[in-house]
Amino acid sequence: MSLTLHGIGVSKGIAIGKVHIINHDPVEVSEYCLPKHHLDDEVVRFENAVSLACQQLLHIRERIPKDTTVDVAGFLDAHLLMLEDNLLKKVPIDLIYEHQCNAEWALKMQCDNIVQLFDKMDDPYLSARKHDVVQVVTRIQRILRGYTDISYEPAQAYLANTIVLANDLSPAETVFMQHHNILAFATEYGGTTSHTAILARSLGIPAIVGLRHARPYIQPNDTVIVDGEKGVIFVAPDERSLRYYRMRQREEKRYRAALSKIKTSPTMTRDGTPVTLHVNIEFPEDMTAVKRVGGEGIGLYRTEFLFMNRQQPPEEEEHFDAYSRVIRSLKGGLVTIRTLDLGADKQFVDSRSHEGSSATNPALGLRAIRLCLKDLKLFKPQLRAILRASALGQVRMMIPMVCGLQELAQVTKIIEEIRTELHSKSLPFDPAMPFGVMVEVPAMALCTDLVTPYVDFLSIGTNDLIQYALAVDRSDEAVNYLYDPLHPAVLRLIKMSIDGATQAGKPISMCGEMASDSRYVRLLLGLGLRSFSVNPEAYLEIKQTIINSKMDGLARLAKKILKTSSQADITGLLEAINA
């Protein structure tokens, strides 16, 4: 009998094949009390397990195929950094002595504490990092339980032309499986911003995550269909479904082949209106995907990854090295670096930044520029690194979550002080480096005309703008059905921002997820947007939509949508725009 299971589609594509199940169930851990004279030996046992875990990851790192299209070493390095961090290296030892317990239980207690901290994070990208912690801890726990094979990875001999199902996958496993020609994968855990999801998109593997409690319904060698776009897996599909999805596969193959042909085509509408199209990245390693799609500029470089999996913030040189890699890789293209966007609840990153903060709603609390202005020791090294990096190419700096001129004035003053400092040390930088802000707080959208005299450019961050405008936590399953990019209030805020920037002669882009959705491209063009920054995997599809669009009539239909209150009517007008 056919069965349909639903998860979260994180990497587009369709795959049909037999299931190969990888069992990564969490290691069962029991607590037992140890006499005091055995505690030193238990600590040594724990330290040896951590050391062997490091050896395993280094062994895997050395075996990464040279023709891998993504530099997975960066993801493995993040896991190695966790093993060097005191939160996993030292705190469990303290717990062994404090509770007189076995190493497995001390490690479990600490892992639970870290996961709870991540669960409180408002930012879905950083919250998803808990999966990396669990993967590293599971590796140590397996070693403590006696599974010490240094090649602790799935057996690849059976992976070719299969669809892998697991409770979770590490970045290393994802890359190795792609190298051994898996068709797709599905996991019970994970989210759209997990490392594994990011890699799946970069590698072009159809993937579904968050497929909770799927394994009881799927047996090894079952035939399944994976629809990575819709997040659906069909178990034991009937012949009609197989015919339909095989046809979809053929259509997708032809579509992707056609998309690859437009990589070098100019980005402009059919009637000659030029449109700027840039790419969003999160890691220097993402430049591989940017080059693959022909991206010529970075409209949003999220810098949060530099602050992950560590107690102390990165030094200036670490910032500078990461930015330099991206700038040199782009060879003259524009790089827009967004300053740190973390929240008040992210004590795992740097607890000193949150003294005195007791916010129950971190999204409205000490995050992004508010946090940076409160802790200049966190902020200044990044600003110095960005300014220094500006000497290497075409660089812009962008500030997130600004809601008023007071914050702008504070940032401008700090930047001017750093310019003076760099000049006195004869360190090169671009004194005319463009400075811009994100439009993601409704107050900023409403006051765009007041802000434009003080900035060089603006970029609309729809992810936060929508959730703030509609008072909807997009990560809360109880209310995220209300998260609607087509809500009249959202569209009016977008239009207001575009008009305010355009009238002031300042460029404005959109870098939120709405820009990466081809359904909204023509509507946004009709609202006056002429610059998009999108995810690498969406780049060619958005480019194709722009190239196939004609400006004639778009503004009229967009204006009509702005005056429409019925959701059904708005949907109908959107269909008319996309016809």
How would you concisely characterize the structure shown here?
The protein has 579 residues and is of the alpha/beta class. The protein has helices spanning 39-62, 73-84, 86-89, 91-99, 103-119, 124-127, 130-144, 171-179, 195-203, 239-260, 287-293, 316-330, 369-374, 376-389, 405-424, 442-446, 448-451, 462-470, 488-503, 521-526, 539-547, 554-562, 567-578; strands at 3-6, 8-11, 14-22, 162-166, 184-187, 207-209, 223-227, 232-235, 276-281, 298-302, 335-338, 395-399, 435-439, 457-460, 508-510, 531-534.
Structure write-up:
By secondary structure, the chain is α/β, with parallel strands linked by helices. The protein has a domain at 255-268 and 471-579: Alpha-Beta Barrel (TIM Barrel), CATH 3.20.20.60. Helix content is 44%, strand content 13%. It has helices at residues 39-62, 73-84, 86-89, 91-99, 103-119, 124-127, 130-144, 171-179, 195-203, 239-260, 287-293, 316-330, 369-374, 376-389, 405-424, 442-446, 448-451, 462-470, 488-503, 521-526, 539-547, 554-562, 567-578, and strands spanning 3-6, 8-11, 14-22, 162-166, 184-187, 207-209, 223-227, 232-235, 276-281, 298-302, 335-338, 395-399, 435-439, 457-460, 508-510, 531-534. The strands form 2 sheets. The chain has an 8-stranded mixed beta sheet with strand order 1-8-7-3-4-5-6-2. β5, α9 and β6 form a beta-alpha-beta unit. α1 runs antiparallel to α2, α8 runs parallel beside α9 (195-203) and α12 (316-330) packs parallel to α14 (376-389). It is globular and about 75 Å long. Residues 344-357 have low confidence and may be disordered.
